[in-house]
Specification:
The protein is of the alpha+beta class and 255 residues long. The protein has 2 domains: 73 residues, Arc Repressor Mutant, subunit A (Orthogonal Bundle), CATH 1.10.10; 156 residues, Beta-Lactamase (2-Layer Sandwich), CATH 3.30.450.40. The strands form 2 sheets. The protein has a 5-stranded antiparallel beta sheet, sandwiched between helices. The protein has a two-stranded antiparallel sheet with strand order 1-2. α1 packs across α2, α2 packs across α3 and α7 crosses α8. It is elongated.
């Protein structure tokens, strides 16, 4: 059945439809939780019926899939296969460093870059993803990297080429003061239960040559092991020093 409910099978895309098909794929790629055909049509400024036909063709050929609840569309297997091929030929410069610290600690390790309005995720641990991505990106008090950001108050502009989220929560001054005091005492940030009741995280900053924080490396672990997490600080700091060199002179550090 087609997107608009008709039973007609969509025709294969012609040359004139390729540009629109690419625009549709870009819109879906930018919405990790899915996007409807109507929203795509509004975003690209094309007639809804034309977008419906294009989406139907992309679904049929495996480039898009419908969400199970029919609330929108996600990237399909054929796009992911192409991405895997590209990734195999273009391994990010930071990946070896992260693979090493993940292997050494056995815990979830994520890399983020700071900008003046929040933070952006550069490399989320693929085997142990963030438990609450939305809160991680919207409220700086809910995660250890957010605490580092509150202490460092970075001034870098928003990085190009990555999905940027801005803080939506402004914490009270007394909360920020407590975070500053804890960071000064420890030399790193930690947060327990902010994203998930059963997990805690700690973070170390990554600085540029002038000592300004450009990002953070954060380790997440179950609460049952959190009391032992500080033993991994040496590995995290070594990795942060290695990442520091990769972050110099790039609009998107560590890329």
């Amino acid at each position: 059945m087609s997107v608009d409910g008709s039973a007609a099978s969509p025709a294969r895309l012609g040359e004139k439809g390729l540009g629109l098909a690419l625009e549709v794929l870009e819109q879906v790629a930018g919405h990790h939780h899915g996007i409807t055909a109507a929203d795509i049509a509004r975003a690209v400024g094309a007639p809804r019926a034309t977008v419906y036909r294009t989406v139907n063709a992309l679904v049929r050929d495996g480039y898009l899939v419908r969400r199970p609840d029919f609330s929108g569309f996600l990237l399909g297997a054929r796009v992911l296969e192409l991405a895997a091929i590209v990734d195999a030929h273009r391994r990010p410069a930071h990946r070896d460093v992260l693979d090493g610290v993940r292997s050494a600690t056995g815990e979830a390790v994520h890399l983020v870059v700071f900008h003046r309005s929040g933070l952006a995720i550069v490399d989320e641990d693929p085997t142990q993803p963030l438990s609450d991505r939305a809160s991680f990106l919207s409220d700086p008090t809910r995660s250890a990297p957010g605490h580092v950001w509150l202490v460092e108050q970075p001034t870098r502009p928003e990085p190009p080429g990555v999905m940027v989220e801005r803080w939506r929560v402004t914490p009270p001054s007394e909360v920020v003061s407590a975070i500053h005091a804890a960071y000064a005492a420890r030399g790193y940030a930690e947060q327990v239960g902010g994203l998930s009741a059963g997990r805690g995280c700690l973070a170390v900053s990554i600085t540029d040559d002038d000592g300004h924080a450009i990002g953070a490396l954060t380790l997440s672990t179950p609460v049952s092991r959190f009391s032992l997490a500080a033993r991994h600080l040496g590995a995290l700091r070594d990795a942060a020093r290695s990442l520091r060199a990769l972050g110099q002179g790039h609009p998107v550090p560590f890329s």
